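queue> pop job 88
queue> type: inverse folding (structure -> sequence)
queue> payload:
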């Protein structure tokens, strides 16, 4: 028995691409890399899941027979993009599905919907946040998080972003904090917490937030929370993620980041500093691929001299005028981490605070354009 339904023009590609991005790149079983298509009274649901998250998209206005099937997720996402912008007729006949749009046809093998793993349920709603605000905050904070848990998995908590969901004396603020041990970013954003919502902290994988930020960048977004689960939902799409154990996360040490002060501060204009960073990274790429390419910052008499060590592979140097009138000071930093701090800073001209005479003391970055952004970086020894 076959089933047939029609998807309105322009609806399939964004839906399958949204869900497919959450799939594991190398699933252990083929069906784990599949997308579930399920047509019913509430529209066509397209769902998939990966190691960290379950994603769903719903297409309204789908006319035709109810039914469900599973198809290879990344493949159908790539093929859907090639179909013309016309209504798509989907026909499931036995173990194959065809998608026809105008004169174009795609035919793919299907897998049984009954064998598809159970999906994580969307947790209860805790409040609402503006999508553009969320997307901007994610971009600012995730730069400081680790992307891998380390060789022995001992740093897995640092592959997450710690979200304090409006508890304590500031129920109208989501406090976001990330670190990789060598740097940290704190950012606070407004939200509307639901009355009576029982929410505390949530430690969300950075990979989930990095993908979710752009996906929910417009309109109102619902934040959903339960113990061990975090979710976001917007019009016709949602994401449910497992949360990470944050017991090893240095929350106590970093919670006072916004109050950290240093003896002196200087404004760094990104467009003036970045060329020196690019030179440094180019020299290192040509040499030994060191992960922490060193760049020296030498402050003297209103001038910042940026230079690298003179080695057989070459050297670079540049001087820029800065608003510095403190004692002579030299700081050794990671060129890549300084680049990330400058490019993520709101406004592109952050204030870098430090204490002269303490070359290994942490550097504190703030932004005159956004007082809610705070970034801390540890110099190289």
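queue> result:
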């Amino acid at each position: 028995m076959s089933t047939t339904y029609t998807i309105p023009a322009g609806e399939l590609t964004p839906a399958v691409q949204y869900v497919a991005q959450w799939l594991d790149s190398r699933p252990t079983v083929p069906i784990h890399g599949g997308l579930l298509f399920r047509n019913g009274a509430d529209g066509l649901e397209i769902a998939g899941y990966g190691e960290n998250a379950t994603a769903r998209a719903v297409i309204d206005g789908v006319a035709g027979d109810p039914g469900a099937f599973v198809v290879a997720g990344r493949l159908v996402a790539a093929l859907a993009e090639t179909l013309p912008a016309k209504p798509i007729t989907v026909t499931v006949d036995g173990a194959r599905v065809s998608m026809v749009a105008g004169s174009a046809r795609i035919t793919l093998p299907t897998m049984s919907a009954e064998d598809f793993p159970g999906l994580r349920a969307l947790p209860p709603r805790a409040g609402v946040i503006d999508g553009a605000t969320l997307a901007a905050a994610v971009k600012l904070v995730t730069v400081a998080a680790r992307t891998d848990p380390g060789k022995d998995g001992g740093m897995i908590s640092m592959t997450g972003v710690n979200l304090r969901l409006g508890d304590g004396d500031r129920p109208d603020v989501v406090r976001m904090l990330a670190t990789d041990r060598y740097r940290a970013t704190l950012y606070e954003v407004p939200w509307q917490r639901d009355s009576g919502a029982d929410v505390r902290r949530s430690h969300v994988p950075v990979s989930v937030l990095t993908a979710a930020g752009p996906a929910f960048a417009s309109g109102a977004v619902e934040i959903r929370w339960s113990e061990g689960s975090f979710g976001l939902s917007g019009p016709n799409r949602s994401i449910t993620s497992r949360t990470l154990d944050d017991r090893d996360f240095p929350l106590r040490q970093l919670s006072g980041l916004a109050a950290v002060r240093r003896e002196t501060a200087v404004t760094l204009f990104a467009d003036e500093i970045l060329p020196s960073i690019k030179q440094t990274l180019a020299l290192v790429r040509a040499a030994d691929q060191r992960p922490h390419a060193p760049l020296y910052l030498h402050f003297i008499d209103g001038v910042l001299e940026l230079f690298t060590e003179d080695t057989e592979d070459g050297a670079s140097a540049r001087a820029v005028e800065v608003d510095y009138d403190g004692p002579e000071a030299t700081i050794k930093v990671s060129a890549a981490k300084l680049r990330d701090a400058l490019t993520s800073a709101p406004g592109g001209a952050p204030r870098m605070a430090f204490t002269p005479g303490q070359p290994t003391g942490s550097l504190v970055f703030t932004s005159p354009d956004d007082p809610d952004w705070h970034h801390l970086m540890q110099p190289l020894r």
